[in-house]
Every structure is written in C-alpha cells, then in structure tokens.
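Re: that chain you flagged

S.,

Sorry for the slow reply, it's been a week of failed gels. I finally had a moment to sit down with the sequence you sent. For the record, here it is as I used it:
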Amino acid sequence: QLQLVESGGALVQPGGSLILSCAASGFTLDVYAIGWFRRAPGKEREGVSCISFTGGTTNYAESVKGRFTISRDNAKNTVYLQMNSLKPEDTAVYYCAARQYFCSLDALDFRSWGQGTQVTVSS
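Prediction finished late last night. Pasting the structure tokens below so you have them in one place:
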C-alpha cells in the first residue's frame, strides 16, 4: 500500500522559509510523480507544484512561482518543497500525492495522498 507522510509544517513569520518533506513508504518513488497541494480554510484545494518521476519536469502554480522549489531525492524516497518569501495567503494544510510518471496539478489525477502538514504564516 502506498503511504506518504508529510512533515515540516510550522508557524512562520511573513517573509520566512520552510522546507516540507514528503516521504514514501511501502513503495519506491522511482516511477511516481509527486504533487504538492494545499487547502486553506474556506477555500478549495489548490495544486501548488509537481515533479515528474525523473525530476526532469516541474510545474508551479502562478501564486508560488519564483518562491517555491520542488525537488526529489529518490535515494531517500523523499520529495521536498522549499518555500521562501512566505505570505499569509500561503497558510494552509499542505498535502503530497503520488501518480505514475507524469506531473500534474490536477488533484483528480492522484490516487495516493498523505495526511497533510499545517503551514501557518503569521506575525
């Protein structure tokens, strides 16, 4: 069974940085693309970033371009989301999800999801 565990969420001040991790267990990430999604209170789930199974393709929502960077370390079976210049509107529960091979920011393309990690950006 595919299991994903997110970590790294925290309370951070505006302008600060965080690194989220998405660790896989029960399977290897080699053939899976990983997407990061977020859900803010009262808002719909939003695709934030994705990375293909090789790492050769990445994609970002317009709202995070230039501030967030996705990367993967298949040897550690982990995908990371580096978040810089955080804004209060980045406050949300962040989820990672897996699908075979190819990048997507559409949540409907993903079947395996983690439980989420809370990111709060506030002074």
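What I noticed first: The mean pLDDT is 96.

Talk soon,
D.
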